[in-house]
Each structure stands twice: as structure tokens, then as C-alpha cells.
User: Which sequence fits this backbone?
């Protein structure tokens, strides 16, 4: 590829017409680098209820705290290990759990406490620090430490995600509307990338998926945008891209949680399964995916069939490179005296340690560099033994 073509592509992708046809209600980012291992970070924006996704049905207190939300295996819950069960809306993930390509880490959180602001919580989740004043994202800092050098980061978003902001080079693809590009704009993008088969394939799949959902439903099916992004991410990761990040929205379930949570969970499950399918077996075998949220939700349901902002939640691990088929937790319990501030699931692990251990596992970034540069103030615990599998 010559310099003129590269410059044209960069100008096009950072211009007003870039990628608006793609279903981009969620955010999406990629980084390119050496080696076979891959890493994907999925941000669950809105405070995902870990007690709903992976329900501790073996803890009898769950049913008095959540009389309308708690399930049992005879009411649709998918049994994981005799103590915990998976929400039925995540049924697409259950075969991955059985195949030991999926695990859950329960009772985790960032260091953020008490204020429970989505904005501050997401800042801390994406910066990897103890303060939302941190100006760079932890994934950006990690990119700068991967051995092999010259790693390119690409953010496809309505605005650059904080997780990839920082000193490491990053390009931004910024769609300007939710309607779509014209035929001329699509043709221009296809022409610019005509000699890169991985992009051409992923882009066409995304366009086809969007068109199919519009033809079937007259408009985009809820969750189709996220699934399209997962498909495109998988297309890039299948070849020479090595890091990706995107978001799944819809987790702020203050009211009518039964319906809202099922919708968001179905979207997340479809995104992970689609990512796997698009990557193919060989790439998936070398992949670690971590899905996490800014904080959890209250242990007690509220008076409107939902839950309010809490603390501890659940993280999802997926991929062929993770210790699968397990619920990993130092379970704090739900009885009186077990809850944080008598309201929240008490965190017993730092989500940043999961990120750090996966980055160490996948790219050989040293533990010291991770604890000092990528995740300031991080202390390693016994979680390391469990996550190494």
C-alpha cells in the first residue's frame, strides 16, 4: 500500500462521512499488533446487575431480597455449578460455558465507592485508576507496553472512548448520524479498502446484517447494532488485529428490570457468540474476552420492579485462552451483615486485577508494569491463582 493511499484512507475515515452506514449505537475500537494472542474488552454501560446475570440460587437470602427477580433451575435458570445459575436470556452463552470457553468472576468491582455516578464509575473503569481525574485509558497504556512495537489503535465511536485515549497512537472513525451513508460514500469506502480482504469481508457482513434486520423488521432490531460491531471486530481479529474494545448498552434497570435486563442480556450473549463465529476457531483459541461494568446494583429489588445503583457485580470471561467452565468467586454472602452498607453485594475482588492478569497472560506485559503504569495502585491477590487455571 502506498503512502498516498494510506493518507487518503486516513482522511476519509476521520472525515464526516466515515462509516455512518454501520450500525453504531455502541462503541468500537481496535488495536493491531504482533503475535497470535488476542484480547477484547467489553464495557457494559449502565451498571449491569451481576446478581441477575449469574444468580446465587444456592444462597437462600436471594429469594427474600428479590422475590420478583430471583429464579431457580426449575424456573428457567441455567445451572452452572449447583450454587449459581445463568439467566435464561443468556442461553446462547451456556454452550460456551459447557465447552469451557466461558467463565464468570463474581463479586467484583472497580475501586469506586459510595457516589454511584455512571459518569465517574465509567471513567474509573476505563482509566483503570483510583480517580476519574486520570486522563488516559488503561487499554491505551497497555498498547504502549506490548512487546513488538508499532501497535495501531482504532476507535470507531460517536466520540473516542476513554479506554483508548492517551499517548499511544489512535485513529478515530466517527459516524455523523444514525441513518447511514449514501451509496457513493459506501462505494468510496469499499474502494479505499479493496485490497484488504479482512476489512472488505467484515464491512460487507456488517452492511448485510444491517440490511437484513431492516428488511425483516422495517427498522433495526434492538441489539442489531452491537451484533454488527461484534461481527466486524471478529473479522479484524481473525487476521492481524490483536486488541478490540466495544460497549453494550442498556443495563440501567431502575424499573421493569425483568424486561429490560433480558433485552440487554440477549444482546450481550449474541455479541459474544457472533464475535466467536466471525473470528473462527483458530483465532478464538488464542483469545481472552473480559466483559465488565462500572458498578453493580442493589441486592434488594426496589418498588418499581427494578434495582438501584450498587457496588459489586459480575465479570464475564470468554475465549479459548481463559480458564473456562467455572464461577470464580470469594462469595461474600447475602445475609444480614454480609452486604456492603446493608444494601450492596460486597466486592471481594478488583476488576482491574482481572484485566491485568489477562494482559499478562496474552501479551507478556510484566506484573510490575501493569501495577504501576496501567493500573495505578493495583495489588495482586489470590485471584491470580484462580484465573491462571
Assistant:
Amino acid at each position: 500500500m502506498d503512502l498516498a493511499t494510506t493518507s487518503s484512507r486516513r482522511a476519509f475515515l476521520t472525515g464526516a462521512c466515515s462509516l455512518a452506514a454501520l450500525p453504531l449505537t455502541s462503541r468500537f475500537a481496535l488495536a493491531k499488533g504482533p503475535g497470535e494472542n488476542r484480547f477484547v474488552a467489553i464495557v457494559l454501560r449502565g451498571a449491569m446487575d451481576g446478581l441477575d446475570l449469574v444468580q446465587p440460587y444456592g444462597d437462600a437470602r436471594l429469594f427474600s431480597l428479590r422475590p420478583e427477580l430471583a429464579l431457580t433451575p426449575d424456573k428457567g435458570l441455567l445451572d452452572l455449578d449447583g450454587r449459581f445459575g445463568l439467566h435464561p436470556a443468556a442461553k446462547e452463552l451456556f454452550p460456551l460455558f459447557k465447552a469451557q470457553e466461558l467463565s464468570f468472576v463474581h463479586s467484583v468491582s472497580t475501586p469506586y465507592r459510595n457516589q454511584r455516578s455512571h459518569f465517574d464509575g465509567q471513567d474509573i473503569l476505563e482509566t483503570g485508576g483510583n480517580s476519574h481525574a486520570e486522563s488516559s485509558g488503561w487499554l491505551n497504556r497497555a498498547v504502549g507496553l506490548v512487546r513488538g512495537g508499532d501497535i495501531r489503535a482504532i476507535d470507531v465511536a460517536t466520540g473516542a472512548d476513554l479506554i483508548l485515549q492517551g499517548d499511544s497512537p489512535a485513529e478515530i472513525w466517527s459516524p455523523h448520524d444514525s441513518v447511514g451513508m449514501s451509496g457513493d460514500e459506501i462505494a468510496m469506502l469499499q474502494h479505499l479498502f479493496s485490497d484488504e480482504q479482512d476489512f472488505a469481508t467484515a464491512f460487507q457482513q456488517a452492511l448485510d446484517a444491517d440490511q437484513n434486520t431492516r428488511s425483516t423488521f422495517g427498522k433495526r432490531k434492538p441489539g442489531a447494532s452491537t451484533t454488527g460491531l461484534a461481527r466486524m471486530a471478529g473479522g479484524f481479529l481473525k487476521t492481524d488485529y490483536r486488541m478490540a474494545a466495544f460497549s453494550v448498552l442498556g443495563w440501567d434497570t431502575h424499573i421493569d428490570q425483568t424486561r429490560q435486563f433480558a433485552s440487554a442480556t440477549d444482546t450481550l450473549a449474541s455479541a459474544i457468540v457472533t464475535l466467536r463465529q466471525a473470528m473462527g476457531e483458530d483465532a478464538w483459541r488464542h483469545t481472552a474476552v473480559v466483559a465488565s461494568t462500572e458498578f453493580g446494583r442493589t441486592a434488594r429489588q426496589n418498588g418499581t420492579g427494578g434495582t438501584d445503583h450498587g457496588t459489586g457485580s459480575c465479570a464475564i470471561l470468554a475465549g479459548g485462552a481463559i480458564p473456562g467452565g467455572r464461577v470464580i468467586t470469594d462469595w461474600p454472602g447475602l445475609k444480614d451483615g454480609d452486604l456492603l452498607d446493608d444494601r450492596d453485594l460486597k466486592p471481594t475482588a478488583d476488576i482491574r486485577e482481572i484485566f491485568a492478569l489477562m494482559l499478562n497472560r496474552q501479551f507478556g506485559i510484566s506484573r510490575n508494569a501493569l501495577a504501576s503504569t496501567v493500573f495505578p495502585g493495583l495489588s495482586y491477590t489470590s485471584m491470580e491463582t484462580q484465573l491462571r487455571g
In short: The longest strand covers residues 102-109.
